[in-house]
Write a structure and sequence with these properties.
The complex is a heterodimer of chains A (113) and B (116). Chain A is mainly beta and 113 residues long. Chain A contains no helices and twelve strands. Chain B has 116 residues and is an all-beta fold. The chains are: A mainly beta (113), B mainly beta (116).
């Protein structure tokens, strides 16, 4: 069945370190891919998206490239900040007449000053 | 409204009581989703509406859980005979099915349910 797998956390980094959070998916059809973020005490919000193969989504210094050949959508940031501490969720949607959505389990990121 | 709203924001109930959680989606959004997030856990999909119908109810954990949506807008999630394991944050999200939306979801602030 359709699924999203992301690396387990927590991930702890020092400020200005490079971040990668891995995400791979299994889907029948051609999904759109998303990263959502949940900051402490806040609701979930969209971070970035990519809707077709080789698209790169980017926002707030984060990037992720839709890799169809490896069924991956890894999240990267060159230099993290303390304010990036949050839980990150990878997700896919499939257009099945509506949009079926599947979320990964989430990866908690802690950034130390 | 400007965003997805949910009520109540917090609900404390006694084991065995019924509760109703409400979600008001963004105006014009045809798709509506309910999720459950337990402490420190990921998102557990519960149910999804397209208009007033629910093509995917596969995530409802038991027959104590039900949901409805009326007028293609407000949705209510009902939990009957609540149990302590039902304690969680219940999240609602809506999305547009217009071309170009690609299923991006907009989330409400959640209802924190505590069953004593």
């Amino acid at each position: 069945g359709d699924s999203v797998t992301q690396m387990e956390g927590p991930v702890t980094l020092s400020e200005e370190a490079f971040l990668t959070i891995n995400c791979t998916y299994t889907a029948t059809g051609y999904p759109s891919l998303f990263w959502y973020v949940q900051y402490p005490g806040e609701g979930l919000q969209l971070l970035l998206k990519a809707t077709k193969a080789d698209d790169k989504g980017s926002n707030k210094g984060f990037e992720a490239t839709y890799r169809k050949e490896t069924t991956s959508f890894h999240l990267e940031k060159g230099s993290v900040q303390v304010s990036d501490s949050a839980v990150y969720f990878c997700a896919l949607t499939l257009n099945t007449g509506g949009f079926k959505t599947i979320f990964g389990a989430g990866t908690r990121l802690f950034v130390k000053a | 409204g400007a965003g997805v709203s949910q009520s109540p924001s917090n609900k404390v109930t006694e084991k065995g009581k019924d509760v109703e959680l409400r979600c008001d989606p963004i105006s014009g959004h045809t798709a509506l989703y309910w999720y459950r997030q337990s402490l420190g856990q990921g998102l557990e999909f519960l149910i999804y509406f397209q208009g007033n119908s629910a093509p995917d109810k596969s995530g409802l954990p038991s027959d104590r859980f039900s949901a409805e949506r009326t007028g293609g807008s407000v949705s209510t999630l009902t939990i009957q005979r609540t149990q302590q394991e039902d304690s969680a944050v219940y999240l609602c999200a809506s999305s547009s099915n217009l071309a170009g939306a690609f299923g991006e979801q907009f989330f409400g602030p959640g209802t924190r349910l505590t069953v004593l």
